Amino acid sequence: MSEKPNYEAYEQRIIELSTQLSESKKLEKALQESEKKYRHIVESTDDWVWSVDIKGIHTFTNKSIEQHLGYKVEESTGSDSFQLMHPDDKDGIQKTFQESVDQKKGWSDLVIRWIHKDGSIRYFESSAHPVFDGDDNLIGFNGIDRDITDRKQILERTERLNSLNERLLVSGGLNYKVKLITEEIIKIFKADFARIWMIKPGDLCDSECKHAKITEGPDVCRYRERCLHLLASSGRYTHIDGGHGRVPFGSYKIGKIASGDEPKFLTNDVVNDPRVSDHEWSIKLGLVSFAGYRLLSDDGGVIGVLALFSKQAISPEEDALLENLAATTTHIIQKAKTEEALRISHERFITVLDGIDATVYVADMQTYEILFMNKFMKDTFGKDLAGKICWNVFRGESGPCKHCKNSSLVDKNGMPTGVKVWQDENPITGKYYVNHDRAIQWTDGRLVKLQIATDITDLKTMEEELRQARKMESIGTLAGGIAHDFNNILFPIMGHTEMLLEDIPEDSPSRNSLKEIHTATLRAKNLVKQILTFSRQERSELNLMKIQPIIKETLKLIRATIPTTIEIKQDIQTDCGAVKADPTQIHQIVMNLATNAYHAVEETGGELNIRLKEVEFGDLDLFNPDINPPKYARLSISDTGKGMDKDIIKKIFDPFFTTKETGKGTGMGLSVVHGIVKNMNGTIKVDSRPDKGTEFHIYLPLAEAVIEQQQATNEASYIQNGTEHILLVDDENIVATVVKQMLERLGYQVTARTSSIEALEAFRASSDKFDIIITDMQMPNMSGDKLAFELTKIRPDIPILLCTGFSETMSEEKAFSMGIKGFLLKPIVLKDLSQKIREVLDSNKNKNTN
Questions:
Q1: Domain span including residue 604
Q2: What pLDDT band is residue 200 in, cutting at 50, 70 and 90?
Q3: In a shared domain, residues 22 and 73
Q4: How would residue 534 be classed by pLDDT, with cut points 50, 70 and 90?
Q5: Which pTM does this prediction carry?
Q6: 221: which residues sit within 8 A by CB, 6+ positions away?
Q7: Which of 274, 365, 424, 833 is the most exposed place for a label (fewest CB within 10 A)?
Q8: Burial class (CB in 10 A: 0-12, 13-18, 19+), 248
């Protein structure tokens, strides 16, 4: 039997449910009212209230966004907030946003630049807090952005004005300072253009001024002693020499501001204001406002006008700031007038400085502007450079000199510290000076630098000669090193080209190209050889020689280094006799004189002439009276350049004397040539006239002895083959590879090693199987000459052929004295290599047979 239902319990449960439902409806109503109240508050606030998800997508925004950024609510909702930010802020804000997402925290007082719909920039101060769902998951942020653009602009304007005032306190000329003021007016007040005039006597009244020609009407120039001179103009118009360059006092808008009863003229409606004459011009340029302010001196007198046009209205606050700026401008102009009076009072001081036979100048220590040069310095630099920047015109620098003593001339209290003495070579004059720097008070009361510099060039001559000698030694070493590397590059090119020429049929279209490559490598080889000859610094004994080949070899080098537009003519007498000379020094003579000749025609074009001729003894005063040989070899080098006068000719052999511009010579060339010729018991003469070119004559005494004709060798002119076994050693793998291929083509067996240590071990292991050693000179761990020494200790009769691109420690004579049988200079032509190998092998076989 079922239990009877408990109706009282049911009734109680129904009552409880009814009560809960009633309370739920009350809560829902309260929430709706709360939301309505909250939304009303949000929509009525001037601040921009927003919500975004964790990706920065707007999920809600109040109507203030339209007021501040021009976007409607429906345009913003669903948009990417980062796309509305200034591009320069975007990356940084995204990083901050992502950090907030990662750390589940908000931010406050974050300044963000947003782009208005019209393209303008607005500054906002942003704060936000995180929003979580019921499971405590971050779902976005709610935030408020407050527009601080106006506050930011006021702050920036104040900072700019403060900065301007600070800059105006620094020393500087009047024109610089009033230009600074007009430039800042453009930036601070967003003016279209701004100008400053100063009242001075008219200076163009009788010539260029158009106003002086007006004889009737309201704009007649009535006050020639009170003309408004335009000092500075910035913005749309920057020139100061146009129609507004001079304005009559009391005429036109500017002149009336200067003469009027009111201290200023302000309008925010230039297109309608009857006081503005050209309304169409204002409309065309989109101008809205004009402001003009009289510049009144301390005694109430008018000294000028400050005026500006703008495309936006000028607020009362801006008007007040501009009035203050006008007062500042007045102060600047009055101060400039005072400075002028002080300058005049220092004329006596200037006169004294002009009487000193040393370079004396005064320069502003902040701007580096030259304020004074004495007469001696003007003569040294060819003109008065006052107003220029000292580091630029005195030293050719692009910024303040590194050795500048300005910072040490005054102490932390701004007091002079005394004289600072230093010495240096001036890059403009080329002379050495001992400089005395000190701070003195200038005509306007500021501290400036006074420098007195004395020429000590003569005292530096010995020091310069030593420096030059060390420099030339370094250049020689460098040239040799470069030539060595270049030879190792040329060698494989030459070798592979020769092998390709052997392989390619005579009728192949590529053959001509290969021949051109081969010809070019031979020319490069000769050029390197000339560089090596010229770079040697060792002093050689004078030997009997004919100098024709040396002259021609040097001319090839010169031809490769000067433009083809300059013609080189040569007339070398083949039967001119022999002289006692050093070949390197002959190179140096020809190179120096030919380079001078090239510089003489470099700009205008022309020709160089080089002649060698045997001449009979004649003019006694030409030669050393203690020598007097009957005949001379005369080397003449001439140009068609601008020539020299007698005064310059007297100095050309003096050390360090040069007429060339900076960078074209040291002045040592001709003095070196003169010394070389004297050491050879010769004489040098020069013929030159302005605009008629220059010709140098080198007279070298002919030797009495006759150079014995060398017996023609029976050297074969063809490539010679062989079957012997060669040990090839070169640390450059590419060189070793090509030489191995070349030798194997000739029939030789070749064992190649790129390490001198490995080569020594291979030879020590089986010395009898090798017939000849071919080794490079310059190698790591063990050089070629040391390797040769070790090899001959193992087998004294082994013939060794030494190859080198360049070596300061090895010559052909030294190699032979060490027992080395052959010596070749890289890059090596296949024919020369094949002949030298056969020469060494055959000579060694004959020696062993005997």
A1: 538-701
A2: confident
A3: no
A4: very low
A5: 0.36
A6: 202, 205, 209, 211, 212, 214, 227, 248, 251
A7: 274
A8: buried
